[in-house]
Amino acid sequence: MDRKKKHIMAVGAHIGDAELTCGKTLAAHSILGDSITTVAVTAGERGAPPDQDTVEFGKYNVKRAGEFAKALGGKFICLGYPDGEAPDNDELRLKLCDIIRAEKPDVILTHWHESLHKDHITTSRAVEDAIFYAALRGFERSDPPHWSAGPYYAENWEDAPEFTPYIFIDVSAGYDLWFEHIGKLWLTDNSPWFKYREYYDALSRSRGALVHKQRAECFAVGPYSMKLVQESF
Fold this sequence. Notes:
This protein is α/β, with parallel strands linked by helices. It has helices at 17-31, 54-71, 90-103, 118-135, 175-182, 186-190, 196-210, and strands spanning 7-14, 35-42, 75-81, 107-111, 149-154, 167-170, 216-220. It has seven helices and seven strands, in the order E-H-E-H-E-H-E-H-E-E-H-H-H-E.
């Protein structure tokens, strides 16, 4: 039986969030022929090097995030809110709702809702509500309703409090593609205070070891989604 193609959307607060935390999952689905969309609420421009203008760095980040998505055969969308100022309001929720209805993803990945970063918390909450809005038939927007599975919450060192892995995705097949292109993002190898590539590279290996795979990425789900059904042991 032919496998049905899927569309996977990952929503991050900043450029680099989705690509680093669940980029191997996106790469693995890309290899399967699935559609990929990455969305950033902000360009992450305030993470600019000391000698670089934040506006120009934001433009650079957008360009490189687009290149990463293109390498996976996907597309990238940046909402352009100021870094550190993602708004916890209906404007953001409705923009995400409209993107979901227009792009029609089957699955949505985003931040866990406990974090040291306010933009991550805001994005997580906004995505949860946007998925609800997008699926609601009585909620009129320019595009018709669309239901997406999720959100599935990606593992992120900044979103660690109370994060409990529930789903392990074998990303072994997507690892090389991810590793080749994640360096397009400045943050990956140039942060002066955190080794992003090393951390997420090692994390995928350690998570993979737990499920007897070369590489894996983990996702949490909300309490109402914790339902494993099987006939017997």
